[in-house]
Design brief:
By secondary structure, this protein is mainly alpha-helical. It has 4 helices and 2 strands, in the order ααααββ. The N and C termini lie far apart (40 Å).
Length: 99
């Protein structure tokens, strides 16, 4: 609610700058992990490819951007889960799963 109130009060130039800042914060979260982890790199690349398909293929142009982001994220996560599953180890004593 505070965001909606401030959005109506702040000047357009500041709102535009804040819109760019949110993308910068997202990139700052993803880039360090992208450099050090092959599974994260693959998932990000799959999401980028899917996003490009939704943007450039005319058959998908009618899908809203919010739904496109959701579809890309979910499909990329599923692909990453299948390609890089987390293997569970059994505890030697009781046979319980260890993550």
């Amino acid at each position: 609610m505070c965001g909606a109130l401030l959005g109506s009060v702040l000047p357009e130039s500041l709102l535009s700058a804040l819109g760019i800042a949110i993308y910068g914060m997202f990139i700052a979260i993803v880039v360090p992990d992208f450099k050090g982890s092959n599974p994260i790199r693959v998932v990000c690349i799959v999401a980028i490819i899917l996003s490009c398909l939704f943007y450039y293929v005319p058959a998908f142009s009618s899908i809203s951007s919010g739904l496109t982001i959701t579809i890309c994220a979910v499909v990329a996560a599923i692909v990453g889960a299948f390609i890089f599953p987390i293997e569970e180890e059994l505890n030697e004593e009781g046979g319980e799963h260890i993550e």
